[in-house]
Amino acid sequence: MSSAASASSVPRTRFAGRTALVTGGGSGLGRAIALAFAAEGANVVIAGRTEGTLKETVGLIEDAGGTAVAVTADVSRSAELAALVEAAVERFGSLDVAVNNAGVLRAGQPLAELPEEDWRTMLDINVTGVLLALQAEVKQMRTQPGGGAIVNISSNLGAHLSLPGTTGYGATKAAVSALTKGAAAEHMGDGVRINAVSPGSSDTSMSLRQGESLAQRTERMKTSSPLGRVSSTAEVAAAVLYLASDESASVVGADLVIDGGAAA
Q1: d(CA 118, CA 27)
Q2: pTM for this model (two decimals)
Q3: Which end of the chain is more exposed for a tag (fewer CB within 10 A), N or C?
Q4: What are 19's strand-pairing partners?
Q5: Rounded to 5 degrees, what are φ and ψ at 182?
Q6: Is the pLDDT confidence value at 86 over 50?
């Protein structure tokens, strides 16, 4: 067996005995992140608004030998986030990692035509949801001897890149990047490390244009991305796990862009 094969077969247990909370974990990037934490030994709490998809993620984790529970919660409601954190601690004894991934995209129109309802929806979920989640998570983590680590999922759009038709979405994600940096500075003294990952187009339905097939997206990305493709969900999840792990113990307030060079 080659040394590379041997290394890849060694079980990774960076999060053994730790509890990781992932919002928006019922599908897409959130599901990939939840599966990645479970594969490295974490007890995973998966949160979102749709019970059916949350249970599907739990089933995938359990089928792979991991441990997970699903909790329905609306991140725009502070009481539901407080109950979510309480449920995680009651079930597993602590909250060691939180990934604030829940988000929505309303795009395709210039700012002057962006419906107010779409703007308010993105503001509620993408910005207020992250703010309220941070408050609930920090409140718990700073009571723990080991503190905790939080990773917010932002975007390359907003703080790093502008594209026509995405201005409103970019504004909400720029706010996430700003919340991350400010909260990181304010709460590192509480033993809570806060960072962000800002993905570009990744292998999820969110990167598909209206009516576009996977094959059509593949062709489009060959010329629209410097790397020539979308990022895999595993690549983004790996960045999240790094920022949540002890390997990044001195990384605070970072905003790691994973977008194939689009914002370079």
Answers
A1: 21
A2: 0.91
A3: N
A4: 43
A5: -65, -45
A6: yes
Number of H helices and number of E strands within the chain? 9, 7
Token output for 227: 């790397």
Domains within the chain, CATH numbers bracketed: 13-258 (3.40.50.720)
pLDDT at 224: 76
Q: How does strand 43-48 pair with strand 67-72?
A: parallel
Instruction: Return the closest-CA partner of residue 73 out of 8, 7, 125, 117.
Output: 125
| Residues classed as catalytic | 154, 169, 173
Q: Does residue 153 sit in helix, strand or coil?
A: strand
The residue with greater pLDDT, 250 or 214, is 250
90: which residues sit within 8 A by CB, 6+ positions away?
none
Whether the predicted pLDDT of 209 surpasses 80: no
**248: helix, strand or coil:** helix
User: Which residue stretches of 40-77 are H helix?
Assistant: 51-63
Is the separation of the CB atoms in 241 and 235 below 8 Å?
no
Q: Which of 257, 123, 138, 128 is nearest to 194 (CA)?
A: 138
Which amino acid is it at 68?
A: A
Mean pLDDT, residues 35-46 taken together:
98
The pLDDT of residue 212:
67
